[in-house]
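Everyone, carefully examine this protein record:
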Amino acid sequence: MNRSQSHKNNMIPRNEKIAQYVKELAAQFLARENNRTSLITVTSCNTSPDMKRATIFITVLPESKEHDALDFAKRKRADLRDYLKKNMEVKTIPFIDIEIDRGEKNRQKIDELLREK
């Protein structure tokens, strides 16, 4: 990493760095644990200001598997926290919640409608 990249990283607020790292690790974890009946994509992660809670947003393909995939991901939250503990160098690992990324679904629907015209 060169000096300008290092300087840029220092300007990103700590909770944004943590959220990005949680997102990346959650994506790795879910890709490894997924039973391959659906594609689970981690689209974003938000952390509370005190970093005690993190919400991971996912999209699922095919859409018909969305409910099952969300249930699966929520059942794996304890294992995901263990995975984060092993791979993150922070004092407190946030409590994890997982939700379907409705914003991404809405963007996809808008794109689909625009292509139809």
User: Anything to note?
Assistant: Confidence is low (pLDDT under 50) at residues 1-7.
